[in-house]
Amino acid sequence: MASEHRTSIHGQWSGRMAFILAATGSAVGLGNIWKFPYITGENGGGAFVLVYLLCIAVIGVPIMMAEVMLGRRGRQSPINTMASLAADEGRPAAWSALGWMGMVAGFLILSYYSVIAGWALSYVFRAGSGMFEGATADGVNSIFTSLVSDPERLLAWHTIFMVATMIVVARGVQNGLEKAVRFLMPMLFFILVVLVLYAMTTGYFSVGLNFLFSPDFSKITQGSVLVAMGHAFFTMSLGMGAIMVYGSYLPKDTSIAKTSMIIAGADTLVALMAGMAIFPIVFANGLEPGAGPGLIFKTLPIAFGQMDAGILIGTLFFILLVFAAWTSSISLIEPVVAWLVENRSMNRLYASVWVGIATWLMGIGTVLSFNVWSGHKLFGMTFFDLLDYLTANIMLPLGGLLIAVFAGWLMHENSSKDELHTTPRGYNLWQMLVRVVAPVAVMIVFLNAIGVFK
Ligand code: TRP
Fold this sequence. Notes:
This protein is mostly helical. Helix content is 75%, strand content 0%. The protein has 18 helices and no strands. Helix 9 (205-213) crosses helix 12 and helix 14 packs across helix 15. It binds tryptophan (TRP). Tryptophan is lined by residues 26-27, 29-32, 109, 234-235, 237, 240, 242, 328, 331-332, 396.
């Protein structure tokens, strides 16, 4: 068994801080600032938020530890990591299928993620040109509508974002990424503080807080619980191997438990702050919390249009949002590129170009789903909705479930103890969560969503 001596052919993080920054860069993204507010709005607020927080704590954190641990032990792309670990532990080679499913999920998510990141990119210029100055809710709404109803413009922004993503991936995620994240994450946080302060001046801050934090369980359905759980995976980048591949570049002596908790905490804080900034604006302007994927683009510009230095703050906000999306998108595709480099002996540049083209093509479906194809629905969902549902609510939790089962039950205790090196109590708690609580919770939510308990 060579696992103690394995090193990654793709390099290693310069230290614990570099890993925390990169993983936080992966976790904090459109999921926190764009998706969390709009799904919270669609699912009635407080009760949904509570379920989401619970999922982060009892499913997200232990599975993140498991995923990082598998990555660091395997030191390769998720497919090869799972194949090696299965061999080490005397388990069926079919476990590499987990890596395959993750690759497909990452590819599908990135295809639409890039389109939404394109919206944010185009808003940098809208904010910068002063277009939001004094704009009404209606004005801001029509600016958004005119963007998404124009497939050519969406395609152009999607293309720019995809190219930017593949440039970083081609250079290797360790180069440059660390430095960018170290500086941009605190900036993003600072701008969110400014937005929350603005939200306090609207006179609707307490209404917003109430919506977010006072749970009304009559407002959630089985479907909402599935969405909340799926989002816990999505926002922490879990269940598809992104965190596994980042874990494979992690130095041996770093504490997996501590770093996972730091990442989860930072990610959750950013999401809650985005919610606290957005909902007061929603209620102050009589907008609809369930407005869907356009929510932040229909609310924040109103605030930028009213506040002092709104042009500057608005432009900065969208720049930072694009960066947050960027550091997330590279992690979505890193498992695929790492695998092509390992198994097809492609160089990184070549692999990145091909993966980029394929993802870009797939993204066209999402571009069209907001305009030309908006009337075409399957199970009541557009192409974009369907991709999002399939990946976030099904593939990621399923991947997470398999990760938990492998790490908790199939890996020998001395392997996981050696890798996690926590206190005995910490280990027992983790083991209980990953063996029982997380898998059972995921199963119950799945079964519930398909109506088994009705
Ligand atoms: N977590 C990111 C966000 O919230 C998105 C993301 C990056 C992701 N890598 C991932 C989601 C891997 C699922 C799996 O925006």
